[in-house]
Amino acid sequence: MAAKLRRVLMRSAASAMRHAKPAEWHYGPGFDAARAARQHQAFAELVAASGAEVEWLTDDDDGLADSVFTHDPSLVTEQGAIILAMGKALRRSEPALHESAYARMGVPILGRIEFPGSVEGGDCVWVDRQTLAIGRGVRTNEAGIGQMADLLRPLGVDVFGYDLPLWHGEDACLHLMSVISPLADDLALVHAPLLPTAFYQMLRRRGITLIEGDADEFRDSFGLSLNVLPTAPREVIAVAGFPKTAAAMEAAGCRVQTFEADALCIACEGGPTCLTRPVLRA
Ligand SMILES: NC(=O)NCCC[C@H](N)C(=O)O
Questions:
Q1: Angstrom distance (rounded) from CA 229 to CA 183
Q2: What is the ipTM, given to two decimal places?
Q3: Topology adopted by domain 5-281
Q4: CB neighbours (10 Å) of residue 48?
Q5: Phi and psi (nearest 5°) for 142?
Q6: Cα–chain-centroid distance for residue 147?
Q7: What EC number(s) is this enzyme filed under (predicted)?
Q8: Protein residue with least CA distance to atom 7, ligand 1
Q9: In angstroms, what is the span from residue 177 Cα to ligand 1's centroid?
Q10: Residues 143-160: pLDDT tens digits?
């Protein structure tokens, strides 16, 4: 999940978020559509400057505000994309946008998660090429995890499900990727108090070094201080304003770039990883 980012699917916030009502989408008072669009553009420039090729979802005024969080409606394997099924009702039509983009890009579709199963991309963490960890919580359920295991078994991939806590409740967004950001094959940023214990133990057994993000910054940012995108091993993009978490990553040899994201990320419960669906890392 932290190899060099080559190709990535994104969606501009300019149209998608333009008319979003915070109360409907569970966004905080800091949400501001025009500011979010500017912050998204600054983030996209950092991603492009890393050398990644950015593929854009169609920029429609379709009212799908959360569709800017392209990490969640699909997952990409070495044999093609898996079209997911969203746990958040307002996001149910987003996977079709991804399917159209993959058709245009020539990326084959390996399979689909079907309701009543649900899996969101933010709950999926590749521990290595043959091991996928999935958080079971308000967005991803047991039926979805079972379907994912069936789709990936022929590829020799083992799928492990881990229970997530409820934390801020059913309407809030807590994915497995909310409590871990891989930074290199052997390095991850974590908020250990919310990590599923068996997942923590698996990471430790594999010798992955775990950096603790600052707990106060995690609380104050509603978890977004921890949501960090690697564009290459130890080359990361993070939300500005969390110096202790950034310093912990720098102490582990990471180069940290930041962008202002109060209106886009902190208000809307999604950070740099959530704004990107990596299609190719190598
Ligand atoms: N992977 C992620 O953590 N995605 C964040 C999605 C935020 C969006 N507002 C949601 O509630 O789905």
A1: 8
A2: 0.98
A3: L-arginine/glycine Amidinotransferase; Chain A (3.75.10)
A4: 13
A5: -65, -40
A6: 20
A7: 3.5.3.6
A8: 270
A9: 10
A10: 999 999 999 999 999 999
